[in-house]
Amino acid sequence: MRENNKKLFNNAAQTWNHGFFWQSMTPTPQGDLQGDLKLAIEKAFGSLQAFREQFVAQGVGHFASGWVWLVSDKSGAVKLVDLHDADTPIVEIGTVPLLVCDVWEHAYYIDYRNERPKFVTTFVEKLANWRFAEAQYDAARKGETGWQFPT
Ligand SMILES: [Fe+2]
Fold first, then answer.
1. In what order do the strands lie in the sheet with 78-84?
2. Fold exhibited by the domain 6-141
3. Which of 34, 60, 108, 149 has the largest CB neighbor count within 10 A?
4. Does residue 33 register a pLDDT over 90?
């Protein structure tokens, strides 16, 4: 569908991406990551602080509109990917998204004006719903798809 019907893909994927984005945030700061996901991130990035720095760098460095995703494969290996426009990691078989930050300008312009670094830093330090990401990580390692868009 991504290539055959780009308009339909863009609308469907952006709906799904935003649904996932709402799950990725919480009004109550949750402190740091815990459990197996914390260990996987420390293994991949060296430390939680290094992960947060990489997350911000990737969000700030992403040219134009898109998304910064923390994803996992079935083996539990995690990585950050930034995707353009409506692209979404769920089209990649075996990839399960754990958390996402919307870096389209509309996501932050009202509160942060053009200060994307301030928005992405606030996202990763205060808004990120780590309990949701941890639940997604458990699903990924079980071979499950995790969160589904409500029907
Ligand atoms: Fe958005």
1. 78-84, 66-72, 96-102
2. minor pseudopilin epsh fold (3.55.40)
3. 108
4. yes
